[in-house]
Design brief:
By secondary structure, this protein is α/β, with parallel strands linked by helices. It contains 17 helices and 16 strands. The strands form 4 sheets. Strands 1, 2, 3, 4, 7, 8, 9, 10, 11 and 12 form a 10-stranded mixed beta sheet that branches. A two-stranded antiparallel sheet has the order 5-6. It is globular and about 60 Å long. Pfam families: DUF362, Fer4_6. Keywords: 4Fe-4S, Iron, Iron-sulfur, Metal-binding.
């Protein structure tokens, strides 16, 4: 039975975060047996945005990172690296993500090494037990260190509903490789299976989630910060996601990444077989946490068989991009990041070719100005209306 620790932490005051992480680690036990002085530890962060400051709750907060570096350096005597690949394919985007989150300053202060996955050597991964992705590339450092710690942010996601420990490993793929995943797996359910393929081949040894301030609504970039006041830790990414998603009001097995990973035996996603220690879920739950605007399938998870649930999920989450030109700053980050080539510049404006758009949310993820609006199909809008009328779940 996997263990997930849930520890309260009201804000990002350094001492509070340091002690809360310590407590979370002590509650799951056995970490000291897995690492020893001299071991190479990689903190794999969640640095989606190259321009959003820490208070926007898009990226892993720097106070979390500093505390983790101190813990693994001083308490365990480890050689610590900090790495990720940002969501944008723009040149220097990951470098800018380290700068905007002040991770570069942490590295300078502590001697930790920054690893820009986009600039790292890569290795080819072949998955014989795949569903969608039989091969992909990852940053080589993920295979040369002794211990990988995933540090995801608690957020909603317009395409996958919830993003956490499993999805965080998409960032193991450098640069354009993430765009290729979206092209291979354009449908929400298929994309979720692809994420599980990646997680299967690059599972972290430990997950410590930044849930002090999460993101609700239309995450992972265009939502709103929401105080949750928690730090979570586990050795099982699937169990971590089940507990975290449950805290913010999701039915965990209705979240496709959790369900698929559970069914493939990559972790435990059923709440009654997870040992939750520290705070109880009832004591820390945030029932009014706003879900993405495509979140109608959650109520269906309680009533529909898997094949109908998958259809429901794809129908309500399938979208196409539109541009709110009054908010658009013409940075053209969305154009550069579109894997399908559906976005282009015309007389200085961003234009979307709906026939090419695969609704992958890549443009939405990198837009820092709320200029991207994802529109649903008629079927999706109808199913959302049914969910609201039934009153089974709060759907925004």
């Amino acid at each position: 039975m996997p263990t997930v620790s849930v520890v309260k932490c009201d804000d990002y005051e350094s001492e509070k975060v340091y002690h809360a992480i310590h407590k979370a680690l002590s509650l799951i036990n056995g970490i000291d047996k897995q690492i020893s002085p001299g071991k190479k530890v990689l903190l794999k962060l969640n640095l989606l945005s190259s321009s959003q400051p820490p208070e926007r709750a898009v990226n892993t907060h720097p106070v979390m990172v500093r505390a983790l570096v101190q813990i693994f350096q001083k308490d365990f005597g480890c050689d610590v690296s900090i790495g990720d690949s940002s969501g944008s394919v723009k040149n220097a985007s990951t470098f800018n993500a380290f700068r905007i989150t002040r991770i570069n300053e942490i590295a300078e202060d502590t001697g930790a090494r920054i690893v820009n996955f986009d600039k790292d050597e890569y290795i080819d991964i072949h998955n014989r037990d795949y569903e969608i992705l039989d091969k992909f590339r990852i940053a080589r450092t993920l295979r040369t260190v002794d211990f990988v710690v995933s540090v995801p942010k608690l957020k909603t996601h317009g395409l996958t509903q919830y993003t956490g420990a499993i999805k965080n490993m998409l960032g193991a793929i450098p640069g354009n490789g993430k765009k290729n995943v979206h092209l291979i797996a354009p449908k929400p359910t298929v994309f979720a299976k692809a994420l599980v393929d990646i997680y299967q081949m690059v599972p972290p040894h430990l997950i410590i989630m930044d849930a002090i301030v999460g993101m609700e609504g239309n995450g992972p970039n265009a939502g709103q910060p929401r105080k949750v006041g928690l730090i979570l830790a586990s050795k099982d990414s699937v169990a971590m996601d089940a507990v975290a998603s449950s805290i913010i009001g999701f039915e965990p097995m209705a979240v496709p990444t959790i369900r698929f990973a559970h069914h493939r035996g990559l972790g435990i996603g059923e709440m009654d077989t997870i040992n939750v220690v520290g705070e109880t879920i009832n004591n820390v739950s945030v029932p009014d946490f706003q879900k993405p605007s495509s979140g109608a399938q959650d109520f269906a998870g309680k009533y529909l068989p898997d094949f109908l649930l998958a259809l429901m999920f794809d129908s309500t989450c399938s979208t196409f991009s539109t541009v709110n030109h009054s908010n658009c700053t013409r940075c053209y980050e969305c154009v550069r990041n579109c894997p399908a080539g559906a976005m282009s510049k015309e007389n200085g404006k961003v234009i979307v070719d709906k026939k090419k758009c695969i609704g992958c949310f890549c443009c939405d993820e990198v837009c820092d100005f709320n200029a991207i609006e994802m529109k649903r199909s008629l079927l999706g809008r109808t199913l959302l209306g049914m969910a609201k009328a039934l009153g089974v779940e709060k759907v925004e």
